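Okay, can you check this protein?
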Amino acid sequence: MIAVDRLPIPTEFVQFCQSVYWPPSQPNPGTRRLISDALGAVDDAGRVVLKDFINKLLSDGYSDEELRQIWMKPHPTWGFRLGGHRPFLSLVRDIIDEQADNVAYPSRGEG
């Protein structure tokens, strides 16, 4: 495991973190919508990089505090309570997979 202060942060992770935003004057869109909207800032190739990085973060044994530090490196506009990063990143990874499946296997309309 690479120390947090020396961990290279992919540009795609920075783009994603900085795109997670919910205007306080708007109704809560829900976590899935927030993630889907932020993923719009990352192209398909970038989503592969983002997912690989998230997999590394989740599998390399980083503590909740270390995940918080990594999340804060790109100066995001959205934060979490300690312990909230791991489930959020897991959901990001799942949504990337879901969206990739939808592109690879688009539903066919009856007609």
